[in-house]
Amino acid sequence: MSKTTIHLAVQEIAKKFYNLQHLNVKRLNSYDGLNFLLQTEPENKPDCSQKIIEYHILKFVPSDGTLFELCNKQVELMRHLHHRGFCSPNPVVAANGHYIWRLNMVEAGLINEMIADLSPPENGFFMVTLLEFIPGRILSSLHPVPYYLFYEAGQMLARLHELAKTYEGDSQPLKELSNNSYWSLEQAGEVSNYMEVVTDEELSSIILQVVIRFKENVLPRLSDLPSGIIHGDYNDDNIIISSSSEQCITPSSSELNDEVNVIDSEPSVRFSITGVIDFSDMSHSYLVFDIAKALSFMVITDVPDIMVAVKHFMNGYSSSRELLQVEKDVLISCTMASLAQNIVLALKDYSINPGNSYLLASMDDYPVALKKLFQHTDDELMTMWNLCQ
């Protein structure tokens, strides 16, 4: 099936279930599932001097029948956060009355070589969600990233944690995700079972030592750690920024043209964090795990000194939610365990799906960051990250 035919199938789904017409369609990178950016240009109305251009994200997630309840709960939480002023994607209700629903992709004409790397379920069913697009740029497009944005990123994550506390619904499906997903930090100790994919002997030795530390220093203290709803994938690709002159920036110049829009950071231009996207890994877990996973991404961003960047992030987070001492005590072990987990599982998944090069997008950076952190003692890192207060 050609790219044009695929886009026609997506356009038909968008029209039939969401009444979106006159679409430009672009497939976006995704670790799993299918994401499409939809640019909608309604025809001019007699009383309008300009066209109204809208953007949405149409998501397809493989469904084996057990994930529907989880994804439905994630969508419910996204609506909860959005309605309380948090700038997250707002789900759009479909013509069938649901915010998330199941579609047979064979019948829709979307099972083909394009998604062969996704290992679609045998029944061909995917879950479908349409999200309002958040305008702006992703944080990873900024080079270098100014330190004040790390402070704002920390504040934003703490705000998410605090707002999520107001959710009173059943979080059991989210707890099950943390307990069962091998990407959750609860399962970080299991990466030692897949070490055959790591060919660098020095890196392999470091990962095994990090796993031992995690098992000895963190797992016995889980009952002492505050828990709640977490983002699960808070990284620089999922954080939206805008400058004062770009509050309404659209993705048309980059997202729709297969280009990476990299911005050279200028002191005269001040950016701010204006949104957070991709809640597909949202779960109920330990709050410090969310911080650690965020830091494991922050330490590979383009900054002069990653230790200073982490310090700013932690200062920002602590300005809105103060960490308990037990959280500070385990944060370093958790961060290095998250880095080790990212390395091993990305290599493992790539060995299964070698057609998806996006799986290795940061593989040059993670080992360097882990080795750098491993050179320091915990006391040194506690001081540099401002965790000793």
Stretches where pLDDT falls below 50 for ≥5 residues?
A: 252-261
Name of the level-1 CATH class of the largest domain? Alpha Beta
**How many domains, as an integer?**
2
User: What would you call the structural class?
Assistant: alpha+beta
What is the N-to-C succession of helices and strands? HEEEHEEHEEEHHHEEEEEHHHHH
Radius of gyration: 21 Å
Determine the oligomeric state from the structure.
single chain
Helix content: 25-40%
CATH architectural category of the largest domain: Alpha-Beta Complex
Question: What is the name of the CATH superfamily of the largest domain?
Answer: Aminoglycoside phosphotransferase (APH), C-terminal lobe
The proportion of strand residues reads 15-25%
CATH topology of the largest domain: Aminoglycoside 3'-phosphotransferase, Chain: A, domain 2
Q: What coarse outline follows from CA principal-axis ratios?
A: globular
Largest sheet: 6 strands, antiparallel
Q: How many alpha or pi helices?
A: 11
How confident overall, as mean pLDDT?
A: 87
Cα end-to-end separation = 59 Å
Number of strand segments: 13
Structural descriptors:
Pseudomonas-type_ThrB, alpha+beta, cytoplasm, Aminoglycoside 3'-phosphotransferase, Chain: A, domain 2, 13 strands, 6-stranded antiparallel beta sheet, 2 domains, Phosphorylase Kinase, domain 1, transferase, EC 2.7.1.81, 389 residues, Hydroxylysine kinase
